[in-house]
Amino acid sequence: MKQHMFAVAFLATALTGCGLTQGGGGEEKVAAPPKTASASASAGQTAAPQGEGMIATRRVNDDQAVLKVEVTELRREGKMATLSWTLTVEKGEHWSVGTKMGRHNTDYTVSNVSLIDVQNAKRYRAAMSQGPEGTCACTETDATTVQTGGKLSFQATYAAPPPEVGKVNITLGELGGLTDVPIS
């Protein structure tokens, strides 16, 4: 736990030193939760008790594969928040991550995964270092292909919503989203 706290403190200091950009990490006003592109939800979303290793889950149909998305942690630490989740390929021969959670067709990161503060109508994007080639404080996906039964883990860091916000919605790029995910 101490190593985790040190790593988050180090990351927060490093990102502050690089300078976070508003458009590349931080908050934006939103009118309503965004609509998703090509993925469709099947059975919907469920919440789980905190002690079971996940705090929200949902199944998604994408590219003839059925994926199970599990949010394992959404933790506020000072002015930063860290989101961790996994994707498991439950059905289909294989599934390719590619740019499905990136901001554009050459973005092999999870930079398009956002936290939506419905209470204050704000979107929090993954933190990015300043500059034209800003680096996302998140997992790089590459062109990873996962076989049935395979699991991938992801993580992204954000500016934290205000302390009074106890739940947020999460958008997962082309893979849809989850609602009312608790922040610890």
UniProtKB/TrEMBL annotation:
Region Disordered: start-end pairs: 24-52
Low complexity: bias regions: 31-51
Domain of life: Bacteria
Full protein name: DUF4352 domain-containing protein
